[in-house]
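Before relying on records like the one below, remember that each one covers exactly one chain. Contacts with other chains, cofactors or solvent are not represented anywhere in the record.
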Amino acid sequence: QVQLVESGGGLVQPGGSLRLSCAASGLTFGSYAMGWYRQAPGKERELVAVISSGGSTYAADSVKGRFTISRDNAKNTLFLQMNSLKPEDTAVYYCNARRDRVDYWGEGTRVTVSS
């Protein structure tokens, strides 16, 4: 049974930082492309950043230069370092694992950026 469990969300002031983690189990973690998505209130879920099984990364323009995605295959864990946070980054952040057109999702962790 595949499980993706996000952690690290919370309330932070504008300009602050948070580090999200996604602990994966039940899958061969290193063989999956992993990603972070987010869904703000009243909006559709959107891609934040992805990292391939080989370590190549892509980030959405809205977070490029502020967010960094990384993975630790030895610990089956995905990370998202978020710096210079803005109120518009407020959303529920979801971890995704993808291989052979099959997607797995975590339940999300809430990030609120507010003064």
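The CA atoms of residues 38 and 93 lie 4 Å apart.
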